[in-house]
Amino acid sequence: MDNTPLQPAEALAELGRIRLGETGLDAVLTQVAGLARRSVPGCDEVSVTLLRGESPTSVAYSSSLARQLDEWQYEQGRGPCLDASVSGDPLNLPDLATEDRWADWAARARAAGVGSSLSIGLPIQEAVVGTLNMYGARPGAFDADGIELAKTFAAYAAVALANAHLYESTATLAQQMQEAMANRAVIEQAKGIVMGERRCTSEEAFALLVKISQDTNRKVRDVAAALVEQATRPRR
What domain range is 217 assigned to? Predict the structure, then answer.
């Protein structure tokens, strides 16, 4: 991950140049994390948490330390990144030495060389929420200007995340529709074969396919495909 410092305006412009249609969700999140680390003053490590239902995951991180800081929270089922994911509110912990809400986690983070943290909620959709997590080596790493910049950056990041998630969901839906259409086509072919052989109606042909499916514990689509393959196989 590039560590070259970047001016906030340059970082936000770079974020706007991400081509969501050509970039997978994980790659988008990695770019978001990298730009945040390079542009927010006081930020030494950064990660992005996604929370799907009850399952949190660090999908992008600047180092193994950033991922570990998140995973310690996941193990305990509590921590600033999890609370910010659920509430959507920013959580600034200016001095982990005096932090008592998550004392165990704060102690482990201090031992790892972290003095402060900032978690900004990233609402994506109802089923998926997340946080942009920033960790500073010294206490008070994030001043008022830095926090405001982080909020602005997170707002841009949330839009990029939402669009990427929408693109991914739409692509998945399109694939499912293609598969459904292919299944429908082979079933219609099989029905035609049965109708021709048995001189029966479309409904009767489909009922026969369903019965074979139940008797053999196979999907109707697989039964239909086998029938079509058998019917189109060259005769010797």
Answer: 176-232
Q: How far apart are the first and last CA of the chain?
A: 62
Label the pairing between strands 91-93 and 116-125: antiparallel
Residue 79 has pLDDT above 90, yes or no: yes
Q: How far apart are CA 109 and CA 140, in angstroms?
A: 15
- Asked if the model's pLDDT at residue 92 lies above 90, the reply is yes
- Are the beta carbons of 80 and 103 closer than 8 angstroms? no
Q: Residues 127-166, buried b or exposed e (16+ Cβ, 10 A)?
A: ebbbbbbbbbeeeebbeeebbebbeebbebbbebbbbbbe
Domain assignment present for 226: yes
Q: CA-CA distance, 151 to 120, in Å (whole number)?
A: 7
AA identity, residue 169:
S
In the predicted model, what is the mean pLDDT of the chain? 83
pLDDT at 125: 55
pTM of whole model > 0.85?
no
What CATH number is associated with residue 184? 1.10.10.10
Kindly report the CATH number assigned to the domain that includes residue 115. 3.30.450.40
Quote the pLDDT of residue 154: 78
Assign 113 a pLDDT band (cuts: 50, 70, 90). Answer: very high
| 61: nearest Cα among 112, 87, 26 | 26
Element (H, E) at 59: strand 55-61
66 and 149 in a single domain? The answer is yes
Cα-only R_g, the chain: 26
